[in-house]
C-alpha cells in the first residue's frame, strides 16, 4: 500500500486528491439525506485498498471542513499506523480499557482528522468489535466529530466486519480490479445483507490509467 507522503506529495498527488474529492462529494450527498454519522469501509479480502480508501476519504472530508475520527478497527492486520508513519502505541484497545477518547487518539497535523489506532492487538478481536464498548465508542464519537470513518477487516476471512457493520450507519465496499473475483463480491454482499448493513456504494480500486486518461473517474 502506498503511504501518506506518496499520495499527498508524489508525482500524481493532484490526481489522487481529485479522485478522493469525487468520492467525498458523492458520500456527502448521502450524509444528511440518511443522517449518516459513521461509515465502515471494508473489502472481500485483504490487499484490495480499503485502508488507502479509508485514510484518504477521511482526509478529503477534512479538507472540506469536517472534523473526522478515523478508526483502525482491523485488530488482525492494522495498516493505518504504517500508512501515516505514526509511532504511538495507544489506540482502540486503550479506550476499551478505560482511557478517555481524547487521550487515545493521535491528531494528524495540518488536518481536522484524529486517528484512533488499534493499540496492542488483543487475542479476541471479534469479541471487542462486537462489544458494548464499541457501541459506546461510536455513540461518544458522534458527539465529538462530524463524521467517523472505520477501516474494518475484510469480510470473507473473518466475521469482525459482519458484526461491526450492524452497528454502523453505512458501509462502503472496496474491490480491486483484476483481483477481486465476482463470487467473492457476491458472497461479501450476502454477508452484509445478513447483517442488514446499509451499503451506500462500491469503489473499484486499481484501474490502470495513462497520462491521456488520468483525468478519468477512476483512481489508480
From TrEMBL:
Keywords from the named record: ATP-binding, Kinase, Nucleotide-binding, Transferase
InterPro entries: Bact_polysacc_biosynth/exp (IPR050445), P-loop_NTPase (IPR027417), Wzc-like_C (IPR005702), YlxH/NBP35 (IPR033756)
Cellular component, GO, one term: plasma membrane
Annotated Pfam families: ParA
Keyword Plastid: no
Gene Ontology molecular function terms on file: ATP binding; protein tyrosine kinase activity
PANTHER family: FERRIC ENTEROBACTIN TRANSPORT PROTEIN FEPE, TYROSINE-PROTEIN KINASE
Protein name: CpsD/CapB family tyrosine-protein kinase
